[in-house]
Amino acid sequence: MKILVPVKRVIDYNVKVRVKPDQSGVELANVKMAMNPFDEIAVEQALRIKEAGQADEIVLVSVGPTQSQETIRTGLAMGADRGIHIEADQETEPLSVAKCLKAVVEKEQPGLVLCGKQAIDDDSNQTGQMLSALLGWAQATFASGVELAEGTAAIIREVDGGLEHIAVKMPAVITVDLRLNEPRYASLPNIMKAKKKPIDQMSAADLGVNTTPRLKTVKVEEPAARQAGIKVGSVSELVDKLKNEAKVI
Amino acid sequence: MSILVIADHNHETILPATLNAVAAAGEISGDISVLVAGSGCGAAAKAAAEIAGVSTVLVADSSEYTNGLAENIAPLISSVASSYSHILAPATTYGKNIMPRVAALIDTVQISDIVKVVDAATFQRPIYAGNALATVSSDEAVKIITVRSTAFEPAAASGGSANIETVSATGEAGLSSFEKSELSKSERPELTSASIVVSGGRGMQDGANFVMLEKVADKLGAAVGASRAAVDAGFVPNDYQVGQTGKVVAPDLYMAVGISGAIQHLAGMKDSKVIVAINKDDEAPIFQVADYGLVADLFDAVPELDKELG
Fold this sequence. Notes:
heterodimer, A: alpha/beta, Rossmann fold, two-stranded antiparallel sheet, 6 helices, B: alpha/beta, 7-stranded parallel β-sheet, elongated
């Protein structure tokens, strides 16, 4: 079985983002970029499935600017086999990304798509579900447990009230949550090896997908800043302030 | 303009986040319908009909909707979508799971997690863990939207008298099946709607130490939450997590105990009215957003707080 893992290049999760003065978006120039952390978890899960002998090839795919190839290389250094880069210079929306991924799925015929539950840049949490709908496949979102069996997968999902166990028919789209696994670091030899692994290049237009955004971004602004308050000296002072000043208890 | 709100419910009652979604709908237009898809969900439908401002409740009562599986519910919603200008759902795990599937089925882009209705086509939503707010406008014929519940005051649960109409079920997709759920049982208020939340972080050191926080929470009538670090460490279950990818809360009082204040955590609680931080590290970033900070060892401060509260 082949596993397809979509990966996204985003601002590193440790970077404090800055809004551009003209309110057109956030500053991306000279900012440290990295693979979306949820996608790293998806790559790790694919590797574990392959290591367990349940998959024979892991293909990474990224839709984005040329530098997305660096993100693909990160995943190849973790151990994935090859990459596909779909060039798209402007910002892409989840629906058009899902359409690109659908075209790749039709070409590559994977038995499973594993992706992050959301990207930490636009926080949309849409692409996996959309891809699943476009393919007419089963979907398992927010997975914190994945067990594959013949033709089906047993999934534990993180939901508002706790955990939910479901079974999905394969092929399926699984979107992964934080606690599914802890992604490995790439070793130096694997980083060197990854440089030789192939990355196919194509454009969204080659796949017949129009990636022109359908939503218009009117403006992007900073949220109202919260001011630091005061330090209290003791628990009794804290309780007094909460009762008599803030009046919240 | 007419709006359909997808109810998050447990067949018996309507879950609170649905009321916030109805309130957001009310800021767009006055013509609001609510869809209750479930099985044996007559009581939930009746409750939906009593929500103030709702004119029609659509009920799809059929076995394939028992467990809220997206593959079964999304076709139902898309089958009625063309009658509406907007379809809203609360941004609960239920809404987040289903709505993008609906959007793709009707070839529409979705706007996730709105915090403000600017006008009928323009909405504000947080991006980058709430470190930026994007205002976006959409000319989609049907606007598919999820609603951040803390950003809208809930609609009144009673006072309405909507008509209840039945809609045809769309059948079992045969793609997935529900096995079981392991839901956290608690007598405490629900995290996202509690007026006081007491949360613990890595500084709690052990799951057993959460008992200290629970005692304080019970005296305050509060819910108990946690940072990602505390959940990852196995101190408490996943449904306690407050943050960018966990739950978003905005109570009157949020007490962060032993939580350093990573931006991913702040994303889930910085809209709280009053924030208290108890941490022994006076450089912890949580103090930059706290109204009242106490630099102290939580193992001294929390038992003392418990005593002070009587």
